[in-house]
Amino acid sequence: MNIRNFNPAALDEMDIAAIATLATPELAELIDLIDKDATLLKLRKDKLACALNRKYGDAAQKARINAGKDTGVVHIDDADFDVAAEVGKTVKWDQEKLIAVLNALPTETAKHYAKAEFKVDERKYAAAPPDIQKILAPARAVVPSRATYTLKRKAKE
Length: 157
Known about the structure:
Blueprint lengths: L15 H5 L3 H44 L4 E7 L2 E7 L7 H10 L2 H7 L8 H6 L2 H7 L21
Antiparallel strand pairs: 1-2
């Protein structure tokens, strides 16, 4: 297979078994090609998002002000198109203030509204003395993620 002239879209037509039979140098080149395509695609998407914001940002902000909201979806009429402009939200709570407020509420009420989640930093767990690790171990579950592979050409000696 001539990878240099390979169109990564042709990968869609190949089954996994056929791809797996490719020589390692070809797989490495495919990874490089696809990574470059992904980088270019991200740059293009970012550029388009900036252009859409430039074109519709002011109108979307006015629509949000008129709707009395800072986040969510507003609609802008543009000739034959309905443009939906969405601003997501991330809510952050001041932990010290929240603890103080929740402690002032009856326990059942606090449990109804608040959810507490404790975590142990994995580096601290790994560095902990064995007796501490033994105490924490029953509460620890390791969930494996998807395997990733990196193909790197070895330096010739």
